[in-house]
Amino acid sequence: MERRPTSRDVAALAGVSQSTVSFVYTGRDGISEATRKRVLLAASELGYRPNLAARAMRTRRTGRLAVVIPVSALNPLSMLRGATAAAQETGYVVEVVSLPDDPIERAARVAEMVDARQHEGILSFTPLQVPEVTGEDAPTVLSVSEFDDEMHATGHLTDAQPIVLMMQRLVELGHRRFLHITGPLEYPAAVARRDAYLDTVERLGLESLGAIEGEWTGELGMAVVGSLSEEAPPFALIAANDYVAAGAIRAATLRGWSMPGDMSVTGWDDVGLSAFLVPSLTSVVQDRERLGDYSMRRLIAAVRGEEPPERPTGLQRIIWRESIGAPGA
Description:
The protein is of the alpha/beta class. It has helices at 7-14, 18-26, 33-46, 52-59, 77-89, 103-116, 161-173, 188-204, 218-227, 242-254, 288-304, and strands at residues 64-70, 93-99, 121-124, 140-143, 177-181, 207-212, 235-238, 263-266, 283-286, 316-319.
């Protein structure tokens, strides 16, 4: 049977003492970043995993962190991927826990986790009711509130600046007439983008064909564009997401409108097929993986009593494609 690698093996490969390996995995102060990375790289090469039970008995540290998400969370995988990678890089084991959608049941489940003291830290992307905890082994709970109870974006991902930049680019190309399909306005992100659209229309003296609320569906895009008058073109459509934009492209095609000559269109989310539409769709990509990484590093810094990491910038960027162009082109 193959022998399991030990901290002594890691120390030998990394060229450090065995106590240094222990200090890296327990988050002890005084370890340089270069040394920490060398130890973790050696551990990765050897397939070393610390004995969490022994560590917990010796140091009151479990080496475990939890990420909690509501059962109804929509596509949390990219954020979880970033969060778990950040935790593993710093020597922690991560458990992902699905919480009930009901706020009262959710609070009770969090209270159970806190009371059990099985995790050094608990990270939530939604608001949490956290019971007061005391004691040296009490877990650190960080609610970063990037989403509300219904997983509507409320934090970094509500930044509507890309709407402004896309509209400014369209104006540079010669567009003066615009239309916006907002998505449901119970979503803070939809409200922020609508407000950015209206502000830009007013600031630049543009003509608006409307800001129409609806669901995040291709059917909505088809219905809105299908209902426009023949005198609407040329115009630029700012769609709530790529599905709405795809429906709008289909409706414009069925009406015989050229794109981007009669209708330029932008989307949001940059879903997988957006680059392969005809025309390929200008859209906004959100770096949720980097947001998960940043949030987990905030939690780890809080657990260890260290300075929090620098807040990331550029979590949203525009992918420019064929769906925008000069009117009448």
